[in-house]
Amino acid sequence: MQELSLSPEAGTAPVGGGADVAGAAVEPVVVEQAPSRKFGIGAWLASIWLVGLAIAALIVPFTSLTTNPKYPNLADVGPFKSGAHIFGVDAIGRDQLSLLLWGARSSLILGVGAIAIGMIVGGFLGLAAGYIGGRTDTLIAGVFNVLLAIPQLVLALALVTALSNDQPHISGTSVSFTPVSPARRLIVLIIALGIVSIPVLGRITRANALTWAQREFVLAARAQGAKSLSIMIREVLPNVLPAMFSIALLGVGVVIVAEGGLAVLGVGVHDPSVSWGVLIAGNRSAISTGYAYLLMEPVVFIFLTVLSLNYLGDVIRARFEFRDSAL
Amino acid sequence: MGLYILRRLGSLVVVVIIVTLFSFSLIKFIPGDPVINMVGYFDPKKIGALRHQLGYDRPFIVQYVDWLKGFLHGDFGQIFHGVSGGSPAYAQIKRALPVSLELMAFAMVLTLLFAIPLGVLSAYRNGTWLDKIFSTTAFGLIAIPDFVVGIILLDFVAVKHGWLPANYTYWGQNHLDHIKSLLLPAISLAIGQIAGYMRLLRSDMIQTLQEDYVAMARAKGMPDRRVLWLHALRPSSLTLFTVAGLNIGALIGGTVVVEVVFQIPGMGTELFSAITQRQYQEIQSFVAVIAIGYVLVNLFIDILYTFLDPRVRSARALA
Fold it and tell me: Alpha helix (H) ranges present in chain A?
């Protein structure tokens, strides 16, 4: 899996270099991929899954589903499956369906939140770089390159460690540590993964803005005396948006997966919050202990979600046929 | 050409300075006193002395320059063991780095070994049921995170059935066990990559196969096999190189997580324990080493690129 690198086809810009790019002369042209350009059955299924999940994640706090252990009575503690709990009950008596839906909530908030940061900041920077050009472009492209010079998961890991490190408590000569609140951890994760996605979204925006900025209607707007900012937003941005959205859809999936990776490293969301990543990391020996469903259920959720996001991203890409490579 | 490499090296130095400055400044955001956090006990006198000794009482920029000087001389900071003092982080990195590099190389070899033939075959049989099965499978595989593959493989293949070892064995201990113990983690890393590379190579090859010179080679009566492997693969391999360069970052990230899953004593596991034990000096050096390695690989691929593709070379000569 391409951990955090968005779509294997995207971009040819080398990392850590200047603006002169070896890939400029030889650009891999991406041939239309398997999904057709029509909004076919696959796209409908993907949309239904994602919308259904989003609705479930939105309403789950208003239902009776909680992530608190429901079976304080040790005799009833799982893991087990029953008619009342079709997804099962985990080892400390939590209903797995509740965990999955609350997990969807964390994972989706995280994915959408981080990509929103990436789209707004990266989009603005990329637009400015592509439209204004010159020194502005060199500077912004330089910032992107620096951010891309650290492998993205390592960058996210460093940011999360620094921003939501355990709080030290000093009593006498001994120091003990308690984790920060789950809310703070979630916000830090959103910010960290948002920062990581800035250069990725920024680069695709810049590449597309570069080509659109050369078009006649932009020149016409400029000739009529429109301000740069208004040209950027009213003329260039609408044309760049499909490319940004396509990458953003893939990006949401990448962020959800990245949180899973961070959860394995012990810095995902934490109790009482759950995410799919935390569920996977927590049930990593479920197969050998005979409760494979505890592991496979979150795996299927993450798989279907990422698959749907990738598929829709491809459909948008095929439909608008924008240039995929970073210039 | 020489000038180009020189210029790239220059920008590389700038990138490395900014990246290390960034990783160095992260420590400023950490809640609490970094020295107390690292050492894990509180004794005002000793902490004060240690803070002075480590230079945390000096201006930020002086600290950074000192750290950079030390780093360039192989002083990667210390790992603290509570009251009993510290040990150099350099030894840990020196031990862990080859382990990770080997795992990544193993995964890379597996990836290319499967991705290239599958991609070529898929492009050759473009539109047939075989191609459709391959493409759909690849699309699905991309949506499975590598750590998920790792967790499932480890628990199912190694722990439950014992078909392969669940523990890491060093090469020095037993050669065969060593390779066996690397197999599952390498597969976990490779599966998603195989799918990605295969898709890319396929779409690139389909284009190449429509070129005139391919039709020419075929018209001459050259067997398809020769056309595919000699004439068509070479231009497509450039794309493959670029993506390989871009994917190194993903591979490093994946390796960090997969190593922790399989408890392989490489950079990932080391970074993980450094983070859980709040060894900030070690973390800084780790991030710097990884970033420098990553930037170097990309530079190397860029240079390789210019050697492989005459068009890039001439474009640059004109510039």
Answer: 41-59, 96-117, 123-132, 134-148, 152-163, 182-212, 216-223, 228-231, 237-264, 276-282, 292-320
